[in-house]
């Protein structure tokens, strides 16, 4: 077992650290995999290396005193069969394709929302992501279905600082009991109009 993957809590066991650099309070680790022969999954021909693409990944593990940045050296491959030319890039379990944050970052963002004193803004700042991304991660992993609408509802605004562009959320409640039905992250038209239109369309 690779002790580095244990230390960083990575899912990939074959990655190695090829370089370590410290710049102020930031530790920069360069990760890559040992070169191995690749064969085309489409036709079986040997694949040719097309070089290495570097990706900068934010990985929040061990960020007590230092911020940790991973430079991921991702190998690219192309089939040598002129009738195939299948093209692919190396994949890693600990980070999704085209993402700039590791999977662990997303899980920690979701966990941070458990603290009612936290906001999307504070969480985004802690994990070096945008407010919008933090909110999208929450929506992706946490399913909070809207409760059925009652015969009479009340709509109110509340300062909650969930959205970067609008600090007021929209709260929908049962008019008679005051029980919450749903919460919209913003009172702006680009959020409220699609929401209420979808309710009408569903009927």
Distinctive features:
203 residues, alpha+beta, 5-stranded mixed beta sheet, 5 helices, 8 strands
Tell me what you see in this structure.
It contains 5 helices and 8 strands, in the order αβββββαααβββα. By secondary structure, the chain is of the alpha+beta class. The strands form 2 sheets. Strands 1, 2, 3, 4 and 5 form a 5-stranded mixed β-sheet that branches. It has a 3-stranded antiparallel β-sheet with strand order 6-7-8, with no helix packed on it. β4 and β5 form a beta hairpin. The mean pLDDT is 82.
Q: Which regions have little confidence, pLDDT < 50, spanning 5+ residues?
A: none
Contiguous helical run count:
5
The SSE string, one letter per element, is HEEEEEHHHEEEH
As a percent range, the share of strand residues is 25-35%
Class of secondary structure makeup = alpha+beta
Mean pLDDT, rounded to whole units? 82
Oligomer, anyone? single chain
Please give the largest β-sheet: 5 strands, mixed
Radius of gyration, CA atoms, in whole angstroms: 23 Å
How would you briefly describe this protein structure?
The protein has helices at 3-8, 103-112, 120-127, 131-141, 189-202; strands at 16-23, 26-32, 47-58, 67-79, 87-89, 153-159, 168-174, 180-184. The protein contains five helices and eight strands, in the order H-E-E-E-E-E-H-H-H-E-E-E-H.
Please describe the topology of this protein.
Layout: H1 3-8, E1 16-23, E2 26-32, E3 47-58, E4 67-79, E5 87-89, H2 103-112, H3 120-127, H4 131-141, E6 153-159, E7 168-174, E8 180-184, H5 189-202
Parallel strand pairs: 2-4
Antiparallel strand pairs: 1-2, 3-4, 4-5, 6-7, 7-8
Helix pairs in contact: 3-4
